[in-house]
Prior knowledge:
By secondary structure, the chain is an all-alpha fold. It has six helices and no strands. α1 packs antiparallel against α2, α1 packs across α6 and α2 runs antiparallel to α5. The protein starts with 9 loop residues before the first helix and ends with a helix. The model has no long low-confidence stretch (mean pLDDT about 95). One fe (ii) ion binds next to α1, α2 and α5.
Amino acid sequence: MSLPGDPTSRDILERIIRVDHAGEYGAQRIYQGQIDVLGRGPRGDVLRHMQAQEQHHLDTFAGLIAERRVRPTALLPLWHVAGYALGALTAAMGERAAMACTVAVEEAIDEHYQAQAASLGEDEAPLRDTIEKFRGEELEHRAIGIEHEAEKAVGYSLMRAAIKAGCRVAIAVSERI
Ligand SMILES: [Fe+2]
Ligand SMILES: [Fe+2]
């Protein structure tokens, strides 16, 4: 159990950078799947806007992987395929379903980033600030999803719960593997 202000252990730090790199990688792939299906439609621009932010998040964590010498997750090839599939499938179900996917994913990431920020000590204040900044952008993505009628997607509650559960599993395994 760590208290705020405690120095961050190397183990915690590695897990944080590994899983966030994995998550942003997956997020970028989700939007790629959605853009390939819906990119020419009315939601194309907003999807590209969110993808560009995910790309920036990904680039930032890729930089930290190199700089802090953290081993990336061995599961990147899985997130490459699974992220894309989740994006393309929800997009194929319709624009509202695609937005419901964003709401679910971003809610899971918000909880995850919040917990991480709390586990980082003062010695890792810059990383904590980065996570808090990205968390703000993920919450904007969630708001965009709601604004574009995510809640009116057919089977919204079930889909949201299933995708959030999937994200939590992906997070747990990507911290370690
Ligand atoms: Fe992100
Ligand atoms: Fe996001």
